[in-house]
Each structure stands twice: as C-alpha cells, then as structure tokens.
C-alpha cells in the first residue's frame, strides 16, 4: 500500500509522458484523475488513522534500509500536497500549455513529496528530496514569466548546493553514530534510539549542514534570498506547489531529523533558532508591506509565515509543535489561495502590479470575496485555520522566551497592515483606467478550486482539535526525545 | 610460486587471435560483406565473455603476468559489453557510414584485448603492454574516416598524449624496478627495506606511473587533450574511450593502490592536488562549453576527480582500503554506463546534428520522447541525482572519504558537484525546449529503417536500464566488486 501511494503518480507520469505526445488535453484530464485518486487514497489512509510501515534491507554494506513509515503528520502533509496539486491544476487549467509535459512533472513532484514524508531512512529521504526537486525546476523554468529561467536556475543552484552539504552532514551523522555505537546505519528508526551525545564540533557541523539543507527549502530567514524572485517569476500554479507544499518538507525535515537525532546540540542551538525564526517573521512581514505588487506581497507573507513555524519548532514544546503542524497546513492552504487569486488575475491578463490594478471588486465581486477570505485567513482571523496555529505557536513560544514570542506576536499586527494594503490596492479604490472592462468573474472551475481551499481552511480553523489528534502521536513521539533538562540551563530567563 | 592457470589467458587470446582472424576474413577473396565481418567480431567478443563467465570463481594468475580475480572478472565482462556496444553503435553510424570494415572491427578487438591485460595486470610490464595495445588501437579508431573535420587533429593529439604518458609511465616503471628489484606488484612492498633497495626511487617511480595514468584518465592538470579528442572522434569511438578505455585504466590504478598501499601515503599530496584541480577545473570549464561532446569531456575530468577522492585515503595500516577501492570501482562502473548512454544518444542524433553543438539538439527530447527520457536519466545520473547510479557512486565515495576524515576535500567536491548541475540542467533544458527548426525528413531517425536505429536503440535501452538498476540495486552490485 505504501509503495502504491508513493509510486502510483510516478508510474502514471511515465505513462502520460510516453502516451500523450501531442494530446495535451487528454494528458491534463488523466493527470487530474491521477492526482484526485491519489489524494483520495491518502485521505482515506489519514482517516483510517493507522501508521503504515515497511522495512527492508536495501544496501547492506552501508546500512541503508528501504524503510517507509507514514504516520499522522506525514499523512496530513501528503494529503495537503495532493490537495494543493489539484488546486494548482484547476487554476492553471487554461493558462498552462503543454500539459503532456507539465502533468508528468507535477505527478513526479507529488510522488517525491509523498515518498519524502514516508521515508524513514536518511538516504531514502534524500532520494525523494531530490526526486521532487528536479521536476520542480523544469516547471519553474519552462512555465511562468518569460524570464523565469534565471530565477529557476538560481533556485536550483541554491537548493542543490544546500542539499549536497546536507548529504555530507547526513554521511557525517552516519559516521558519528557508527563511532559512538558501533552500528553504522542510515535507518532513522535505529538512529533515533541512540541519539548523538554531546555538543562537539562534529555534531555542530552536522547540525549546520542539516539546517542549511532544510532551511533553504523553508526558506529560513538568512537563506530566503532565492525565494522572492522565484515566487514572483514562476507560474502561480507551480508556486502553489513550491510555497504551499514543498516548503513544508523543509520544516518536516528539521522536525524529524534534528532534535530526535542529536538533542544536545540542537537544544544548545534552540534559542538561536527561535531568534532566527522570530527575526525572519518580522523581516518577512516588513518586506511584505513594502512590496508594490500582489505576488511580491504573497511571497514575503509566505516567508514570514514559514518562519513562525521555525520559531515554533525551536521552542520545542507541545503546544508550539501542535501549533506548528496546524500552521504548516494552514499556511499551505492560505498561500495556495492567494497564489490561486494571483493566477486567476494572470488569466485575466493582470499581473498584480499595483500600478495596473485597482477597483477590481466592482467587476469581479465573487473573486473579490474569495480574495478577502484568503487575506483574512492569512492575517489570522479567529475561527480560521491560521489563527488556531498561530495562537498555539505564540502561546508556546512565549512560555519559552518572552522576547522572541512577543516579536512573533508583533508580526500579526504587521500582517494586518500588508493584508489590508494589498487588498485595498488591488480590489478597492477607484477603477484603474488601464483595467479593461471585459473582465469576467469566477467560472465554475475556478469556484471549485477556491471552494476546496475555503472549506479546508474553515474545517481546520473550526475544529483544530481534529487535526491535532491526527498529528498528536508523532509530535508526542518527537517530544519524548526531548529531555526537559536539556533546556534547563538554556532557558533560565523564562 | 607462479601458478600456471590458463583461465586468465583464454579471453585475451580469443579476442587477440580473433582480431587477426577478422583481418584475414577481410582479405579473403570473394568475401566483401562488411556485415559478416562485424558479425564475426561480435561472435568473438561473445566467446570472450563466455570464457570469462565459465572460468572458475577463485582468483587465478597466469605466470605472474595477469590474474583474474572477482573484481576484474566483472571488469572484463564490462569491457566485452563495451566492445560489443561500440560495434553496434559504429555499424551504420552516420559519421562512419560505409567505413566500418574488417580493420575497424579488428581494432575494436585488439583494444578490448589491451584492456583485459591492463586491468588484470599483476606485473608492471603487462600493464604497459595492455595500455599501449589499447592506446594504439584507439588512436587508429579516432582517425577513422580521416577526411572528417578534426579527425586527424584529434588522433595526433591522442597519439602525442599516449606517447608522452607511455614514456613517463615506462620511466616510472624503470625507477620502481631499480628501487625494488621487482616488476611484480605483489613483490615490491616485500622487497623494500632489504639490501640494495631504495624506497625513495620506488616512490618517485610510483608518482611517475601515477602521472602516466593521470594522462590516460585525463585528470587535471593532464586533461587538455580530452575535449579535442572527444569532439574530433566519432561518437562510438568516444563511447569506447570513455566507457572502456578509461575504466580499464582505473581498474589498474585501483589494483596498484591495493598492492602498494604501504607506499601510497607518500603520494597522497599528488592525488589530493589532482582531485581538487579536477573537480574544480573540470566543472568550471564544462560550464563554458557550447558543444555537448566537449561538455561531457570536461565533466569526465570532474568525475575522475571524484573517483580519485576515494584514493586519497589509501594507506598501509588503514582497514578501510577495501571499502575505498570498492567505492571507486562502483563509481567507475556507473560512469561507464551513463557515458555509454550519452554517447549512444549523440551518435544516434549525429545525422541531425553532426557537430554535437548543444543548440542543435533543441527540442530533440520532445521529438523523440524515449530518447529524451534515456538521455535525461543519463544526465541526471552524471549530475548525481538519486536514485541513479551516479548518485550512489558519489554517496559511497563521499562516505568512504569522510570516514577517513577528508572533510575539506568532500566539501570542495560537493560544492563543485552542485555547480556542475548548472550545465547538466542546460543540456536537459535544451533537449526539452521548443524546437527551433524542423528536422529534414532524410535525417529524421524515426523514419529510418530498422538496421540504422536498432543497434543504438538496443545499446541505449540496455545501458539506461543499467544506470537505474546499478543505482537501485546498489547493494547487490557492491557484492560483485
């Protein structure tokens, strides 16, 4: 079953690539069908609530296992990835050409993501990590704005450099663990039973490599430099996958592989991690206020929100981690909603630069309402998903560190400012004379895409307990690694 | 005691004598069918492979000249397969059309014989003979169809390189003999320390042998000839150089490192210098190329830099030698198969784009989806993207090098690998972007007869499958080498 959910999209991708050479519309329908089926299977598994697992020897000489385990958190993020892929397809339905190529790439990325969330071996994880990256590059480079090739290449170079250094760190971890215990293995299940002891130079190097590799993907504050350009230049459908689903993989990796495998050195780093998260949040929000175009605002808002997740991660405390899981889902959904709006505006030949828009609400009230909903969700309106996440995160973070928790809280205020500003510039105000009059409102396909997101945001927002239960087991398991005494000296200020 | 097992000589004898027979068939009156000759040559190669397969599995030596052990057993099979692939590719290759006759086939057989000797040599002279036999045959193959642009130039460059490297290596062998009193690899370490031996001479000799090998492997700073030779020779011959010639040399180098591990630390500095120069310079130079063959040539420089990375930690008292050598051998194997795919694709498309300029391939991946997928897998493997063979090669080499504490080198190598992705992606982007011009019907490979496409298709599909399988079943592959 696990193999099926991982490789089904990949096999379908191969079949579509070879079978639909000149038939883009057929490829499009088939891709949608495959993604829907995949998402439904994943959703069914998530509802079932069982943890699937599979373990086999892969490369014995190097202690590499073919070990898969898909628990609640992984399933939730997989379902999110599948759902976002559906949304990305629906909003790109007409705009994206050459579906016979785009469809397989999208499917391959999805395959990589599900595999990544299920991987329980570091090398296997790395395999899926790269598997999702390569098709993403092609989607970024070949679709999107005419000059997207450059930003895509920059994205690729930055992430691959970081990934390779992460691979070096993984190998070092393998060796350090082998030296410490005599067991040379990449298997996460075995590694986490004997976490790396001590705060040595070697473990610092390992942590640095992992932080780099995962942090670039999130993107964590000083490593975010590739993101604004890539988010702005890529096709919004691709960016929905990149910012909504792939960014989660970075946080997920940090959550899975740093603290449980080397608690001491991570605990020593935790205050710095919280600081980075809080500063990144603040910086992202401040940048978002300065932007002059819709996609720029969404890009920086996404960076800001992902950094709150980093703040939560390094708070390493039950409330904050639960909040983080919610935040990952909520951010994925709301940023996807915003980029979907950007995509719909692009369909109507509006690129979202403030100078070219304004007063669109009068012409497209339905689109305007949906846009408003996503803006309000992003800002953190109570009752919607983001609020539940952020409230938990901030409560947890403040209990660890009043300073950084408060900095995180301030950004909510800032997010209101940029949220209101972007909505006002695009939707309200006088009608921009450059806006052509023949704009059409949402059609049923677009309504379907946005409705999926809206319902999901509402469900998570109104019943956060449901989601917390799903992710509780894995986070509790991760927390169990944390010996509170580790934090004793570090968090004396509390 | 020298054992006189005859198993190790059967395969080289078969291919060597087979080469002569193929030449004889060519001059036989009334028999002017080149297809028949190529057929016979293939049979000879298959017989050679049979001889290797049927030989007993224990290591067996012949007169302390060559020895067939489990590692080079599989090496020999690889070379045989490579020779067969070269024949298949060359047969009806557009650049060699009508020129593949009994002499070309016999040259392939002689070159394969040379690689057998070289890779299995337990005696420095055997290695030298093998190396020269391969080099001379390959030189003639490079110049095949001399009126082709660049053919003579490439052949002369190769000839000069091979001669220079051969003489340096010979000088090194002489010094090693003078210093230790033996040409047998396994006897040299034992002889040292005795009377009338001189360890310094042996080390200088070893360094010179290493430089000779570096010339043949085209490791920086001895790589200058490679790009011109790759560009000037026809793709089947390029594939042979990359996948067979270099790997044979690599196996000899690994054998040398294994036998002389005690002396190895003395030349670590030389190797480390070569590694750094190769991975950095190879990748940076490849970034600037606009010709696919030249690009792959510089990428080859970088790849052998990664391979040598595993050899920087060999030493007499370390217990990780076997693992290091295994990682390097795995890398060599994966390099061989992924380059076979790339050059087979280049050869198949040579009717459309004879110069192999990158721009000429625009849109080819869309026009021929299967070919595009094969090339994409090969290029991603070269770039070290999992789950291909190239990724696991890098993983194993990096792991072993880190295990020996080479953190700085591994970080340099991984940064260089990251920059290499830039040009590998460029290849893929060109292959899959919108075609700029229409392919003339005459050149369209989809319209051509089976005979033209069948050989390369077979080679491409088998070696692409190998790239994936060697990666996915790396655990099994490691037990063989």
TrEMBL record, chain A:
Pfam families: Proton_antipo_M (PF00361). The chain crosses the membrane at residues 6-23, 30-52, 72-92, 99-117, 123-143, 155-176, 196-216, 237-255, 267-285, 297-316, 328-346, 367-389, 401-420, 448-468. It is a multi-pass membrane protein. Keywords: Membrane, Transmembrane, Transmembrane helix. It is found in: Endomembrane system; Membrane. Residues 119-412 form the NADH:quinone oxidoreductase/Mrp antiporter transmembrane domain. Its main location: membrane. InterPro entries: NADH_Q_OxRdtase_chainM/4, NADH_UbQ_OxRdtase, ND/Mrp_TM. Belongs to the complex I subunit 4 family. This is NADH-quinone oxidoreductase subunit M. It comes from Pokkaliibacter plantistimulans. The lineage of its organism: Bacteria, Pseudomonadati, Pseudomonadota, Gammaproteobacteria, Oceanospirillales.
From TrEMBL, chain B:
The chain crosses the membrane at residues 6-28, 35-55, 75-91, 103-119, 125-144, 156-180, 200-225, 237-257, 263-284, 296-316, 328-349, 370-393, 405-425, 458-480. It is a multi-pass membrane protein. Keywords: Cell membrane, Membrane, NAD, Quinone, Translocase, Transmembrane, Transmembrane helix, Transport, Ubiquinone. It catalyses: a quinone + NADH + 5 H(+)(in) = a quinol + NAD(+) + 4 H(+)(out). It is found in: Cell membrane; Endomembrane system; Membrane. It comes from the Bacteria. InterPro entries: NADH-Q_OxRdtase_suN/2 (IPR010096), ND/Mrp_TM (IPR001750). Its EC number is 7.1.1.-. Residues 121-416 form the NADH:quinone oxidoreductase/Mrp antiporter transmembrane domain. NDH-1 is composed of 14 different subunits. Subunits NuoA, H, J, K, L, M, N constitute the membrane sector of the complex. NDH-1 shuttles electrons from NADH, via FMN and iron-sulfur (Fe-S) centers, to quinones in the respiratory chain. The immediate electron acceptor for the enzyme in this species is believed to be ubiquinone. Couples the redox reaction to proton translocation (for every two electrons transferred, four hydrogen ions are translocated across the cytoplasmic membrane), and thus conserves the redox energy in a proton gradient. Belongs to the complex I subunit 2 family. This is NADH-quinone oxidoreductase subunit N. It comes from Pokkaliibacter plantistimulans.
């Amino acid at each position: 079953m696990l193999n099926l959910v991982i490789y089904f999209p990949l096999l379908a991708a191969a079949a579509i690539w070879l079978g639909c050479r000149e038939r883009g519309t057929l490829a499009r329908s088939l891709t949608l069908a495959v993604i829907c089926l995949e998402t439904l299977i994943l959703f069914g598994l998530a509802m079932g609530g069982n943890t699937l697992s599979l373990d086999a020897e892969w490369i014995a000489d190097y202690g590499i296992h073919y070990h898969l385990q898909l628990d609640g958190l992984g399933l939730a993020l997989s379902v999110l990835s599948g759902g976002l892929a559906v949304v990305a397809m629906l909003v790109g339905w007409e705009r994206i050409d050459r579906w016979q190529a785009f469809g397989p790439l999208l499917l391959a990325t999805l395959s990589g993501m599900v595999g990544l969330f299920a991987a329980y071996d570091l090398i296997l994880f790395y395999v899926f990590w790269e598997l999702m990256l390569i098709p993403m590059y092609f989607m970024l480079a070949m679709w999107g704005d005419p000059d997207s090739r450059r930003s895509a290449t920059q994205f690729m170079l930055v992430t691959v450099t970081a990934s390779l250094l992460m691979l070096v760190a993984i190998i070092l971890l393998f060796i350090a663990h082998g030296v410490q215990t005599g067991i040379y293995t990449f298997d996460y299940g075995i590694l986490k039973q004997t976490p790396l002891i001590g705060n040595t130079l070697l473990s610092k190097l390992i942590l640095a490599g992992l932080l780099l590799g995962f942090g670039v993907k999130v993107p964590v504050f000083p490593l975010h430099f590739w993101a604004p350009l890539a988010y702005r230049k890529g096709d919004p459908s691709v960016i929905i996958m990149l910012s909504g689903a792939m960014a989660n993989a970075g946080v997920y990796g940090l959550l899975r592989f740093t603290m449980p495998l080397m608690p001491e050195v991570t605990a020593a780093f935790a205050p710095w991690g919280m600081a980075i998260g809080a500063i990144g949040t603040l910086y992202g929000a401040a940048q978002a206020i300065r932007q002059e175009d819709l996609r720029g605002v969404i890009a920086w808002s996404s960076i800001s929100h992902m950094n709150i997740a980093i703040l939560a991660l390094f708070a390493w405390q039950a409330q904050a981690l639960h909040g983080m899981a919610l935040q990952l889902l909520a951010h994925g959904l709301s940023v996807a909603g915003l980029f979907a709006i950007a995509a719909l505006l692009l369909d109507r030949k509006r690129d979202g630069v403030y100078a070219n828009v304004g007063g669109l609400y009068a012409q497209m009230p339905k689109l305007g309402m949906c846009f408003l909903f996503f803006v309000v969700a992003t800002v953190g309106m109570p009752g919607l998903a983001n609020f539940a996440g952020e409230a938990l995160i901030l409560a947890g973070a403040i209990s660890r560190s009043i300073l950084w928790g408060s900095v995180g809280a301030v950004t909510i205020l800032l997010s209101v400012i940029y949220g209101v500003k972007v909505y006002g510039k695009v939707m309200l105000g006088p009608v921009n004379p450059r806006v052509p009059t023949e704009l059409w409102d949402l059609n049923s396909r677009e309504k379907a895409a946005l409705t999926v997101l809206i319902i999901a945001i509402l469900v998570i927002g109104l019943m956060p307990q449901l989601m917390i239960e799903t992710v509780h087991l894995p986070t509790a398991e991760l927390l169990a690694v944390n010996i509170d005494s580790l934090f004793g000296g570090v968090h004396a200020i509390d | 005691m020298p054992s006189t097992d005859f198993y190790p000589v059967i395969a080289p004898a078969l291919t060597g004598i087979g080469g002569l027979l193929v030449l004889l068939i060519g001059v036989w009156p009334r028999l002017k069918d080149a297809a028949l000759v190529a057929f016979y040559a293939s049979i000879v190669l298959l017989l050679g492979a049979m001889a290797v397969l049927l030989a007993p599995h224990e290591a067996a030596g012949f007169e302390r000249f060559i020895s067939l052990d489990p590692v080079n057993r599989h090496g020999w099979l690889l070379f045989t397969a490579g020779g067969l692939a070269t024949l298949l590719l060359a047969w009806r290759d557009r650049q060699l059309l009508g020129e593949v006759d009994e002499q070309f086939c016999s040259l392939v057989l002689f070159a394969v014989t040379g690689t057998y000797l070289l890779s299995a040599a337990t005696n420095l002279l055997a290695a030298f003979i093998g190396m020269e036999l391969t080099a001379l045959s390959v030189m003639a193959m490079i110049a095949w169809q001399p009126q082709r642009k660049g053919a003579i130039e490439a052949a002369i460059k190769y000839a000069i390189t091979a001669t220079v490297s051969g003489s340096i290596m010979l000088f090194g062998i002489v010094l090693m003999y003078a210093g230790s009193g033996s040409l047998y690899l396994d006897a040299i370490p034992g002889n040292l320390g005795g009377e009338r031996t001189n360890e310094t001479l042996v080390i200088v000799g070893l360094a010179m042998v290493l430089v000779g090998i570096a010339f043949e492997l085209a490791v920086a700073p001895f790589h200058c000839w490679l790009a011109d030779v790759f560009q000037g020779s026809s793709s089947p011959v390029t594939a042979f150089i990359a996948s067979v010639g270099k790997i044979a040399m690599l196996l000899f180098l690994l054998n040398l490192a294994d036998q002389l591990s005690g002396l190895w630390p003395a030349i670590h500095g030389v190797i480390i210098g070569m590694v750094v120069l190769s991975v950095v310079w190879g990748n940076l130079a490849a970034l600037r190329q606009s010709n696919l063959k030249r690009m792959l040539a510089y990428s080859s420089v970088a790849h052998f830099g990664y391979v040598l990375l595993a050899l920087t930690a060999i030493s007499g008292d370390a217990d990780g030698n076997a693992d290091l050598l295994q990682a390097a051998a795995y890398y060599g194997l994966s390099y061989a198969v992924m380059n076979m795919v790339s050059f087979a694709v280049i050869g198949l498309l040579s009717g459309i784009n004879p110069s192999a300029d990158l721009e000429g391939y625009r849109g080819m991946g869309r026009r021929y989806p299967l070919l595009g997928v094969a090339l994409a897998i090969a290029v991603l493997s070269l770039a070290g993207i999992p789950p291909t063979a190239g990724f696991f090669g890098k993983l194993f080499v990096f792991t072993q090098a880190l295990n020996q504490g080479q953190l700085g080198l591994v970080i340099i190598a991984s940064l260089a690998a990251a920059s290499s992705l830039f040009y590998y992606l460029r290849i893929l982007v060109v292959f899959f972007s919108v075609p700029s011009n229409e392919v003339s019907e005459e050149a369209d490979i989809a319209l051509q007869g089976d005979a033209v496409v069948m050989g390369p298709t077979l080679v491409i599909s088998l070696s692409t499958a190998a790239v994936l399988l060697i990666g996915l079943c790396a655990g099994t592959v490691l037990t063989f080498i």
